[in-house]
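RECORD TYPE: inverse folding
INPUT: structure tokens
STRUCTURE:
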């Protein structure tokens, strides 16, 4: 039986806020990004139309990186699919560019919805709980990292191997 693959979300807002550490900063970046993204896609289309293959690849990589930075998973995936097909010299470049453009439009719509107050957002309490969880994990690791207190860390075996 074939397994169904879940499509990546247009924007992982919660992760984006956590990555930026400041919801207002993230919202500000999203606002600017949604204004610039159409011109990024237009540059991709222009590079394709002029046959500038190196420039085309570079523009798509810029979109891929920026999409990852703001947690725009679907756009990042579309850009990644293009780069993979491009590097393997396979696939329909025009179709992949069209898919990239469509994901960019969906993302811009999602960002506008968020900016207009249509998103639930991440509360400071949820961010605080995530930070507390991360701090707890770090505290749990500290004795292992500090060693025995005599300046050396006790030898431990790797899980699944005999290396010490």
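DESIGNED SEQUENCE:
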């Amino acid at each position: 039986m074939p397994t169904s693959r879940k499509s990546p979300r247009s924007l992982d807002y919660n992760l984006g806020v956590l990555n930026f550490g400041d919801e207002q900063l993230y919202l500000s970046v999203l606002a600017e990004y949604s204004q610039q993204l159409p011109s990024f896609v237009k540059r991709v289309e222009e590079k394709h139309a002029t046959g500038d293959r190196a420039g085309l690849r570079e523009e798509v990589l810029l979109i891929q990186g920026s999409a990852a930075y703001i947690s725009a998973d679907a756009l990042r995936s579309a850009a990644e699919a293009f780069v993979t097909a491009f590097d393997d010299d396979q696939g329909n470049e025009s179709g992949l560019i069209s898919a990239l453009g469509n994901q960019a439009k969906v993302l811009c719509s999602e960002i506008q919805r968020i900016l207009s107050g249509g998103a639930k957002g991440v509360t400071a309490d949820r961010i605080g709980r995530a930070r507390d969880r991360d701090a707890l994990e770090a505290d749990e690791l500290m004795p292992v990292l500090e060693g025995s207190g005599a300046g050396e860390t006790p030898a431990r075996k790797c899980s699944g191997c005999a290396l010490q």
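NOTES: Confidence is low (pLDDT under 50) at residues 1-5, 120-131, 133-164.
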